[in-house]
Amino acid sequence: MTQSRLGTRVALDGTQLALGYGAARVLYHVVQAFHGGSDVLEPILLTTKAGSKNVEDSPCETIIVPDMPSTLWEQLGLPFYCEKFHVGAVYAHRACGPTWGPPTVLHFLDDPRLAASRGATATTSRERLKRVYQRMTVSRALHHARLVIVSTNVVAENLHDRYGAKLPIAVVPLGVDTDRFYPDNIEPQEDTVFHLGSWEPRDQTPTVVAAYARSLMLAPDLPDLVIGGRLGEQLDPARKAAEEAGIAHRVRFVGYLSDEDLRRSFAHAAVCVQPSRYEAFGLVSLEALACGAPLVVVPEPAVEEVLGAAALVAQNSEPESIARAIAELWQDRNKRSELRARGPQRAAEFSWTRTGETIKHLLEEVATD
Fold first, then answer.
1. On the chain, which terminus has fewer CB atoms closer than 10 Å, C or N?
2. What is the pLDDT of residues 117-176, one digit of tens each?
3. Which residues contact 193 (CB under 8 A, 6 or more apart)?
4. What is 193-347's CATH number?
5. In this structure, are residues 100 and 79 in contact, taking their beta carbons and an 8 Å threshold?
6. Where exactly are the structural domains of the chain?
7. Residue 206 in contact with residue 237, Cβ under 8 Å?
8. 205 and 227 Cβ atoms separated by less than 8 Å
9. Which fold, 3-175+351-367?
């Protein structure tokens, strides 16, 4: 490895900082960890002009790089800039990382085994080609990496099963922004069944609507269903499901929610329903717990690992099963109170500060190995 004036240089791939979520949130806390300094590392941050706005107080030297397609950046741009700035190691959040260049620490927020197998959900030629690219190169990228970071033991086991037991993996759980997500200090209103959706099919928003319709047959006095989030192409199927079930008047789509509105929606829901599939961690569900939401999820090993006994797991992901879980929570006030107490306690075990510091220490170990 090339040694710089202050120690071993490590590049932090910040080209996704402009997105403002997911990898950007993790990288922000890794950068914050370097405010305490490092005896062995000189971190540099590679980011675009848009991304640099999110780390204006960065303790790292910031290098502005061109904005380019992710596949081109992974295999050409990132290795090129690492060589140009004499980098000894690189830390990257990538669906598929570099297959050459300096030692890489790859951080997967998704399970690449699942991401590469979801080609059927790709709706455009570009998306389908991206899936093919991931399937073709992810194995090479993993075996090129000096270390792979994942968020749960479930994902670590999946990767070992698929790519070999010798794959170097570290499990580093994500964290919860407790200044954004916390319970109210007043009695919950319990005036809604709440679901936070998105444009991603794996959030199963139309399924939530179908499940809510069935739950009304089991518990007719349920509060109305409120669905938040920018749903994109999932909005029309969700509305259609409500109309076909004859419950359009009981379902409200409120769109984007501010941090405070989202926190209150979680904290005051009678039941919160987040039946997301293909999760490698389940951060939204954990944030709901932090607010004290009585939460219903579906069987998803990584989510169950993170949430523990602080949520009600439906028997399966079918609408009938989710409906039974919704009705069960609504009809059992003691169960709701129990989950409201367990949720924040469980969420408190996950700290962003710990996440950032742990990754910093791992980078120090890799860069000086």
1. C
2. 444 455 577 777 777 777 778 888 888 889 999 999 999 999 998 888 788 999 999 999
3. 212, 215, 222, 223, 224, 225, 226, 269, 270, 271, 272, 273, 326, 330
4. 3.40.50.2000
5. yes
6. 3-175+351-367, 193-347
7. yes
8. yes
9. Rossmann fold (3.40.50)
